[in-house]
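Budget justification aside, the reviewers requested a transparent look at the raw inputs and outputs of the sequence design task funded under Objective 1. We therefore reproduce one unedited record. The lines immediately below are the structure tokens for a 188-residue chain.
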């Protein structure tokens, strides 16, 4: 693999780019403060836009790393910030695989979109773009995805992007709470 870092990716409707501090208020308003959006995430809703700004500041420092992949998802026509997609090294070991899986690190896409942008195919479009970038440009061999069992819409996004269900597992919110999830796999 040749890590390239977070570089711009464009699709027919989307621009995936690095976050900036200017994104704090739009991100807070579109999804980071919304309990309906964050209920399946590892993190709780942000109490105010300054919490979002602090997170973006930390993310901004990570863009210097060639193995940091974290994009702001924007509509190409308007530039509106609608969500976030990343590929990060897996955070939890998981030994429930039904297939042979290479040793860690296991790279895992994750995504989050404002409620106003659900149901338009944006999540699938962005995941397919990031998947192609990972396999074609970075040279990764496989990706792993998971979603909360109670969030089957996220699983449909993964399936439309070519991921295959493998097994059930448990991940943990940052608070420590356990969340039953379904794990998917996609090889190059």
């Amino acid at each position: 693999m040749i890590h390239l870092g977070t570089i711009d990716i464009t699709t027919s409707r989307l621009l995936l780019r690095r976050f900036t501090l200017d994104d704090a208020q739009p991100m807070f308003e579109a999804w980071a403060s919304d309990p309906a959006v964050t209920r399946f995430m590892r993190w709780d809703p942000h109490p105010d836009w300054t919490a979002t700004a602090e997170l973006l500041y930390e993310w901004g420092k990570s863009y210097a790393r060639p193995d940091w992949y974290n994009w702001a998802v924007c509509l190409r026509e308007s530039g509106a910030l609608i969500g976030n997609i990343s590929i990060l090294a897996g955070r939890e070991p998981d030994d429930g695989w039904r297939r042979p899986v290479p040793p860690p690190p296991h790279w895992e896409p994750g995504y989050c979109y404002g409620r106003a942008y659900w149901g338009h195919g944006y999540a699938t479009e962005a995941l397919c773009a990031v998947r192609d970038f990972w396999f074609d440009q970075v040279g990764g061999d496989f990706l792993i995805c998971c979603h909360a069992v109670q969030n089957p819409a996220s699983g449909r996004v993964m399936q439309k992007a070519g991921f295959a269900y493998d097994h059930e597992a448990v991940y943990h919110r940052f608070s420590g709470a356990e969340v039953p999830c379904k794990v998917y796999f996609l090889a190059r």
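Strands lie at 9-10, 14-17, 69-75, 81-89, 107-113, 142-148, 164-172, 178-187. The mean pLDDT is 93. Computational costs for records of this kind are itemized in the attached budget.
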